[in-house]
Amino acid sequence: MDFFGIPPQALFGQLLLGLINGAFYAMLSLGLAVIFGMLNIINFTHGAQYMMGAFAAYFLLQYGGLGYWWSLLLAPIIVGASGVVIERLMLRYLYKLDHLYGLLLTFGLALIIQGLFQNEFGSSGLPYRIPPELTGGQNLGFMFLPNYRAWVVGVSLAVCLATWFLIERTKLGSYLRAATENPALVQAFGINVPRMITLTYGFGVGLAAFAGVLAAPIYQVSPLMGSNLIIIVFAVVVIGGMGSIMGAIVTGFGLGVIEGLTKVFYPQASSTVIFVIMAIVLLIKPAGLFGRAR
Fold first, then answer.
1. Which residues are CB-contacts of 169 (< 8 A; sequence separation ≥ 6)?
2. Would residue 35 count as lying in a domain?
3. Chain-wide mean pLDDT for the chain?
4. What are phi and psi of 136, to 5 degrees?
5. Is residue 290 assigned to a domain?
6. What is the Rg, in whole angstroms, of the alpha carbon atoms belonging to the chain?
7. Per-residue pLDDT for 96 more than 80?
8. Percent of the chain with pLDDT over 70
9. 8-39 vs 227-240: helix crossing angle, rounded to 10
10. Positive or negative CA dihedral for 127, 133, 135, 140?
11. CATH assignment of the domain containing 73
12. 192 lies in which domain range?
């Protein structure tokens, strides 16, 4: 049975693509929300760090002989450690300044990192194979579901919900949230606030790198893969509410699905629908769907 004259295979295929895109939107916007919510920094380097995660997986395979599963574990740690260095050497001096300074610094870092990788590897993508355990797919009758794409959606959702639980429902998360409001008080309880902030930034960067490893077999490994995505991800964060963890998750997946459906019913608007939604949301609720007015 067709839906409004559209074959079900095409409809569900675009829904799957929308869910996959939404998984990456959610993962990346979650990292941005964690960093902004806890550190008050608009991290424009996030797209470059997502790209670095994919390249870390590629290097681990090419030069270390380590496959996908080891890369999924090690790449976020390696890229997250580079984020710790950036925070300690640069970002720590900007926390009490206007957001614009952090945005300009991270935007400049993103251009430098992307330029270095582009100069070395060019603009074309490098292939990264799907792990043998996740090749093939399932015939659901109404559509064919590739195993790797199902894995990406499932693991992204699991990581997003685990991060939300960690920040919103655990003692560590309560310390993190309290440190953003009153760091002196948290310090008085014996908590090393500067170290906690550094590790929080490293964790947010690690989330971006984790998403990069997941993306490598789907989109290939390219120096431009982050720059093509980061503007959309910032729109997702704004719609969900700056600093809102649940807003990043729900809005990321939801907008991915909306974008996929738009490609079915009105393809010409698929590249702008997210920005149209952002404009409407900001007119109605400037703090975002899940945000709180500051």
1. none
2. yes
3. 90
4. 80, -165
5. no
6. 19
7. no
8. 97
9. 80
10. negative
11. 1.10.3470
12. 9-134+143-284
How far apart CA 80 and CA 45 sit, in angstroms, is 12
SS (HEC) of the chain: CCECCECHHHHHHHHHHHHHHHHHHHHHHHHHHHHHHHHCCCCCCHHHHHHHHHHHHHHHHHHHCCCHHHHHHHHHHHHHHHHHHHHHHCHHHCCCCCHHHHHHHHHHHHHHHHHHHHHHHCCCCECCCCCHHHCCEEECCCCEEEHHHHHHHHHHHHHHHHHHHHHHHCHHHHHHHHHHHCHHHHHHCCCCHHHHHHHHHHHHHHHHHHHHHHHHHHHCECCCCCHHHHHHHHHHHHHHCCCCHHHHHHHHHHHHHHHHHHHHHCHHHCCCHHHHHHHHHHHHCCCCCCCCCC
Structure tokens at 32: 């941005």
209 with 78: CB under 8 angstroms? Answer: yes
CA–CA distance, 182 with 154 (Å, rounded to integer): 36
Q: How many CB atoms lie within 10 A of CB 1?
A: 5
Is 34 within 8 Å of 207 (Cβ atoms)? Answer: yes
Residue at 283: amino acid letter: L
Return the structure tokens found at 124: 């074309």
- The rounded distance, in Å, linking the Cα atoms of 230 and 227 is 6
Q: Would residue 226 count as lying in a domain? A: yes
Residue 205 within a domain: yes
Question: How many domains are there within the chain?
Answer: 1
pTM score over 0.70 = yes
Q: How confident is the model at residue 136 (pLDDT cuts 50, 70, 90)?
A: very high
- Return the structure tokens found at 246: 């649940």
Q: Report residue 38's pLDDT band, with 50, 70 and 90 as the boundaries.
A: confident
| Residue 294 confidence (pLDDT) | 53
